[in-house]
Design goal:
Layout: E1 8-12, H1 21-32, E2 38-42, H2 44-53, H3 57-64, H4 69-75, E3 83-85, H5 88-97, E4 109-116, E5 122-125, H6 130-137, E6 142-144, E7 147-149, E8 152-156, H7 165-170, E9 175-179, H8 193-203, H9 207-217, H10 231-253, E10 258-260, H11 275-288, H12 290-296
Parallel strand pairs: 1-2, 1-9, 2-4, 3-6, 9-10
Antiparallel strand pairs: 4-5, 4-8, 7-8
Length: about 300
């Protein structure tokens, strides 16, 4: 630590649509006067982290809170090659709407965590366009297609490091604030909200649209509690179990000073249209841990509001 206080690192974990909670966490930290100098992100955490370190978080937050299920569906380029969703349309939209500087030019230190498909190695992406690095970290098997970087195929970073505390340490963080989106999800009730939303869209669609919505609906479980789980339900539960176990193991050896656990158990894998709820939970989470955060970051009182 220096006389100016500790270097603060922010480890933003994987967790698909629950990752919108990262936005609220960051916004509330900033309001408290806590400004992380190091940001490490995995999967959705890499995307939100990338937007944050490029100074575009507030605009991004406004946009994601306007998304409806229909908007999300329109941004998902459904494919059966390498993943349910290619991700190119979605990230192409991000690149059109947001600045995409090289990581080396950023004021804050940033790293995006990915997994090399061939070797299974953990890869830290610290060079090149920031959104490209984030996209590579979001290549969740069976959902988003893998990304090729420097002749190597990259998969989701959550396969090896779901909450990248270790990366924050390596980049010089003294105090790490970790946001773990996958805790307490194992065994949780599988959400039915997404299927209900899809069914609603099917009822108000024309014949051509209805066929597409019917295909999409097949990925979700029905509203019947005893029905066979849909494909996305099975994938979501499997991913939650895997990432929870990996996170427990990684953080047991290198725990964060502050661990934030958003309570978003009823979020499905692609509930990206529920950003407002997740952002609110992120902000409330920081408020609940305010005293702990201020103590660890060397700030005993809140900054004067102007």
């Amino acid at each position: 630590m220096t006389s100016k206080g500790p270097v603060i690192g922010l480890a933003l974990g994987s967790g698909s649509a629950r990752g919108w909670a990262h936005i609220g966490v960051i916004q509330e930290l900033e309001q408290l006067g806590v400004h992380p100098q190091v940001v490490a992100g995995t999967s959705i955490g890499a995307l939100v982290g990338a937007v944050y370190v490029t100074g575009q978080l507030d605009d991004f937050a406004e946009w994601v809170q306007t998304l409806t299920m229909r908007d999300v569906f329109g941004l998902l380029d459904i494919s059966f090659s390498g993943g349910v969703v290619k991700g190119e349309k979605l990230f192409g939209f991000f690149r059109e709407k947001h600045r995409n500087p090289d990581i080396e030019s950023l004021e804050k230190k940033f790293v995006s965590i990915a997994t090399e498909m061939k070797s299974g190695r953990e890869i830290w992406l610290r060079h090149g366009p920031v959104l490209r690095a984030a996209r590579a970290s979001c290549a969740l098997p069976g959902v988003f297609s893998p990304v090729q970087i420097n002749d190597r195929w990259m998969l989701d970073g959550g396969l090896v490091n779901p909450v990248p505390v270790s990366a924050c340490r390596a980049l010089g963080a003294d105090v790490v604030i970790a946001v773990n989106l996958n805790a307490q999800l194992v065994g949780a009730h599988m959400p039915r909200n997404s299927r209900a939303e899809v069914d609603k869209e099917m009822r108000r669609s024309n014949a051509e649209e209805n066929t597409l919505w019917q295909k999409f609906a097949s990925y979700f479980a029905s509203e019947d509690e005893n029905a066979e789980p849909g494909m996305l339900d099975v994938m979501s539960a499997s991913i939650n179990i895997m990432q929870d176990r990996i996170t427990r193991s990684r953080m047991a050896g290198d725990p964060a000073e502050i661990s934030l656990l958003p309570q978003l158990e009823d979020f499905a894998l692609i509930d990206f249209h529920r950003a407002g709820e997740a952002i609110t939970e992120g902000r409330n989470l920081v408020r609940r841990h305010k005293d702990e955060i201020l103590a660890w970051t060397g700030r005993s009182t809140e900054p004067t509001q102007v």
